[in-house]
Amino acid sequence: MMIFIGASYDELGLSPEEIQTQMGRWFAWGDKMKEQGILRGGAALYAKGKRISGPDRIESDGPFVESKELIGGYYTAAADSFEEAAKIAQDYPDYHLGGTVEIREVVKFDR
User: Fold this and answer.
1) Is residue 108 part of a domain?
2) Quick one: how far is CA 83 from the chain centroid?
3) Which domain range does residue 74 map to?
4) Of the chain's two ends, which shows fewer C-beta atoms within 10 Å, N or C?
5) Please, which pLDDT band fits residue 8 given cuts at 50, 70 and 90?
6) Bond into 55 cis (ω within 30)
7) In a domain, 111, yes or no
8) Structural domains in the chain (count)
9) Is residue 80 part of a domain?
10) 3-class SS of residue 17
11) For position 85, which CATH number holds?
């Protein structure tokens, strides 16, 4: 799984035209992975959310001030190793905006 971390486009002050350009880069990257047969799924995530934590189930609404990084979305992709996933992540469209890709292996449990 590739988890995408960075500031929101609004926070960065991108114009509507710049956002359209970025979205075109995202669509091109997704299409490339689909053509290669490695994209398994993914989604963009809204900044707003709800967090429930602790034994008392304390609820708070996001975006969360204590979080300095926004998780903007994720892709799941087929890769045989972290090295292969890192190669796939080289085309991440938001690096030039200070974005980060965190790569995690998805755990599959046997039942």
Assistant:
1) no
2) 18
3) 2-103
4) C
5) confident
6) no
7) no
8) 1
9) yes
10) helix
11) 3.30.70.1060
Inter-CA distances, 18 with 12, 97, 98, Å: 11, 11, 15
List the Cα angle 90/40/29 in 5-degree steps: 35
Q: Give tens-digit pLDDT for 41-87.
A: 999 988 788 888 899 998 887 665 555 578 899 999 999 999 999 99
Q: What totals of helices (H) and strands (E) does the chain contain, helices first?
A: 3, 6
Lookup: tokens for 40: 């398994």
Neighbours of 2 (CB within 10 A): 19
The predicted-structure confidence for 12-36, as pLDDT tens digits, reads as follows 999 999 999 999 999 999 999 999 9
Is 79 in contact with 38 (CB distance < 8 Å)? Answer: yes
**The tokens 């991440």 sit on which residue?**
92
Q: Please indicate, yes or no, if residue 69 is contained in any of the structural domains.
A: yes
